[in-house]
Amino acid sequence: MRHSPRTYWSEARAGLRxxxxxxxxxxxxxxxxxxxxxxxxxxxxxxGLMSLLVFAGGAQFAAIETWIHPAPILTLAxxxxxINARHILMGASLSPKLALSRSQEFVALFFLTxxxxxxxxxxxxxxxxxxAYWGVMGVVLFFNWTITTFLGAVLGxxxxxxxxxxxxxxxxxxxxxxxxxxxxxxxxxxxxAVSAAVAALVYRYIGAPWHVASGALAxxxxxxxxxxxxxxSREKSQS
Length: 239
Description:
The chain crosses the membrane at residues 20-39, 70-89, 132-159, 165-182, 187-206, 212-228. By secondary structure, the protein is mainly α. The chain is built from eleven helices and no strands. The longest helix has 35 residues, at 5-39. The N and C termini lie far apart (43 Å).
């Protein structure tokens, strides 16, 4: 689908506007990751290369938590798979809403994150998600994360503990805002509540990274059941 230059720049500006809060919130998290990674024995160059190739904050933090020498490759790979398995569902949900060819999607979805997915799903409620909109969001967040993690590694211990300033809560607050933007329908509320409760319980009694997959599967099941009940009640009211 071709767009006029005016439409292209309008979509690009919209992407930049929407991703800016997420990019700002990612700065202290990126700096923190870089500092922690260096403390675990990685060099700044290795930290930057990891962010450049992996580009997955949750998986990178999980890897750093279990990082030893020599690195437990199988354990790291399994934990990364569990944490990033949600991307399978996110990609399947988002793919029909992207105004891109199949080959373009394979490249574009490298930049898939929780933030770009949530913002794109919200935008798709009104209009298709164009390549300009998605591309600006993905590239901005990608370079923001890569640069801040590298800077965090260079600065290292000079940063101190971001938790003292509440910076460790930045992503949590961001996700709360993203979820709120989806509306307050019953199906959405049920899915979010069940997903959060199951993830919290699994994290408390089993630990990471199992809470991510458990919360996602529980939320999907809850949404499916709630949507089915809603459909049945609608059919009864019409009969």
